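REQUEST FORM: STRUCTURE PREDICTION
Request ID: SP-0412
Submitted by: Lab K.M.
Chain count: 1
Length (residues): 191
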Amino acid sequence: MEYLIITFGAYLLGSIPFGFILTKMFLKKDIRNIGSGNIGATNALRTGNKLIGYATLTLDITKAMVPVIFIKLNYPEYIFITSLSVFLGHVFPIWLKFKGGKGVATYLGILFSINLIYGFIFIVVWIFTFIISKYSSLSSIVASLLVPIYILLFENYNSLFFIIMFVLIFYTHRKNVKRLKNKEESKTKIY
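STATUS: Completed
RESULT:
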């Protein structure tokens, strides 16, 4: 019972579609009709309102950190299932017919909650890749790949969860990968 409550509670928190809510509240628009149609921070930036974009990013990170840190402190044996549930909540939110974001900001919140170093590795790799390419999607894929590689090479820590997360991030970016391959992907303006 405890397991089900934790899993479902984390999923529901992850399901809160902040990009959708903020765009609806302040711009009176449906973010699903803007840009890529995604509810995440990158597409929220495409609304033209940077404040909404960065607020979405911050809230999507926070909604992962709150349950994962709570579980880490109180029920550490459930940390990975909680992290996965929050992530799946964001990607497949019950409130939006299971069509959500790509999970990058939520995953960043998970990383920082599990280990600050993992979060910083993700950010540094993301920024470095973005400076070179200007592609948010490519930066997210490369950063999510480098985290399990770092763990495998330098830490005696189970990397299976982080490999699974890389596969999921790659899956949520499958259309971006196709566009990158065909040189049709849009570059992202973050400032």
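NOTES: The chain is about 70% helix and 0% strand.
Reviewed by: T.R.
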